[in-house]
Design a protein that fits this description.
Layout (H helix, E strand, L loop, with lengths): L42 E7 L5 H12 L4 E3 L7 E9 L7 H4 L3 E9 L1 E3 L8 E4 L6 H7 L5 E5 L8 E2 L2 E2 H6 L9 E16 L2 E10 L5 H11 L4 E11 L2 E2 L4 E2 H6 L2 H6 L12 E4 L2 H8 L4 E2 L5 E9 L8 E10 L2 E7 L2 H8 L26
Parallel strand pairs: 1-14, 3-12, 15-17
Antiparallel strand pairs: 1-3, 2-3, 4-11, 4-12, 5-6, 7-10, 8-9, 10-11, 12-13, 16-19, 17-18, 18-19
């Protein structure tokens, strides 16, 4: 929910390139160091994103720490927000869309009586009203924002209109028309939260569908209470079956050994816990990995996780092959792992050696993304 733009002229966080320079304390650059030894990493790491970091900056820092070849995050949290940010590595990136589409739960605090240009604490104050709100009034308001509701996306967001992000229009002082979008609020708990003697606030705990703007929800609740509001705190505590209690902090991750960081990875199939499981024999697994449909006595299912024997291995080890769906007894391939990915996952995960000689990313400046 930051309104500040990407830092002008700032260097990209380490992790986006294999070649870095070691910067001396005096500010002079030494000769370029050797290439960072990247390695294939496959799995999911649940990060408790710290305050002040964009999701991409946090991703790049963890990618650097893991020395991973490929990584992506699953649903942006703004610098103002903290909490659960699943990071996908290697083969897990093929299934990251499942987390992007997943329902999410947030805890938030909204200050009553003050509206800002951005709907959060980083904007300029544009209106102030007295606050005379009771617990009973808050309880009465909650049902109005539960179930299927419509939200108008905020101007200070990364949604695009005519190929241009809305926040770019906002910075230029231009407000463009936005279409209201339907989102679902599954659960909503509101309560007075006296966080400061100078002002009153409400605590919001909400479970919602993808695409829900929590600051817009806070603003709309403030209007319904007759005093206005803006978001001051936001924390994601659950998404797609993962809980913030499972997370590791960035500081803890930095302090770990390489082996300890490796142990934080959840398997790729942790993203597919709600999928129906189908197991194939050696012959059918090979054909399935080639994209060939298979027939069997399987019930229809829209989401299937397909397992098979480790090809070419003597041990009876069953590994994830990919996803599929079943229609009329026909197993139709979806996202498939490559034979190399399967071999790496079944073996040591592709852990490699190599000395890092780059300076890790420092605390980044705020950037401009808002899709929660």
């Amino acid at each position: 929910m930051s309104t500040a733009g990407p830092p002008q002229g700032a260097k990209a966080p380490l992790g986006g390139s294999d070649v870095h320079e070691v910067i001396k304390r005096g500010g002079n650059s030494s000769a370029p160091c050797a290439r960072v030894a990247r390695r294939p990493v496959h799995g999911v790491l649940l990060l408790d994103k710290p305050l002040g970091w964009s999701s991409n900056d946090a991703l790049q820092k963890v990618k650097w720490l893991m020395r991973a070849e490929k990584a992506g995050h699953t649903g942006t949290l703004d610098p103002l927000a903290t909490g659960l940010l699943p990071l996908c590595f290697g083969a897990a990136t093929k299934f990251s869309q499942l987390q992007l589409d997943a329902d999410k739960t947030y805890e938030a605090v909204a200050r009553l009586g003050v509206k800002t240009t951005t709907g959060d604490a980083e904007g300029e104050v544009i209106a102030e009203r007295p606050v005379k709100v009771t617990a009973e009034e808050i309880n009465d308001v909650a049902p109005r924002f539960t179930g299927l509701i419509r939200q108008i996306p905020p101007m200070h967001s990364a949604l695009k209109k005519d190929g241009k992000a809305l926040y770019e229009y906002a910075r230029a002082g231009i407000e463009v028309e936005r279409q209201a979008r339907e989102v679902t609020i599954y659960e909503l708990n509101l309560a007075l939260a006296h966080v400061d003697i100078e002002y009153e606030a409400i605590k919001i705990v909400v479970k919602c569908s993808k695409g829900t703007y929590i600051r817009t929800l806070a603003e709309d609740i403030g209007e319904a209470l007759g005093c206005g509001a803006h978001l001051t705190q936001l924390r994601r505590i659950e998404t797609g079956g993962f809980d913030v209690a499972q997370c590791v902090t960035l500081a803890a991750l930095e302090a770990m050994t390489d082996e300890e960081r490796w142990s934080q990875l959840l398997p790729v199939e942790s993203l597919l816990r709600e999928h129906t499981v189908v197991s194939l024999d050696d012959e059918n697994a090979g054909r399935f990995l080639s994209g060939v449909r298979r027939r069997g006595r399987w019930p229809d299912s829209g989401q299937v996780a397909v397992y098979g024997p480790l090809i070419g291995a003597w041990q009876a080890q069953r590994v994830l092959m990919g996803t599929a769906h079943v229609v009329a007894g026909e197993l139709i391939p979806g996202r498939l792992l490559s034979p190399l990915e399967i071999e790496q996952i079944a073996g040591d995960g592709g852990s490699g050696s190599g000395e890092l000689c780059a300076v890790p990313p420092s605390t980044p400046q705020k950037t401009d993304f808002d899709q929660i």
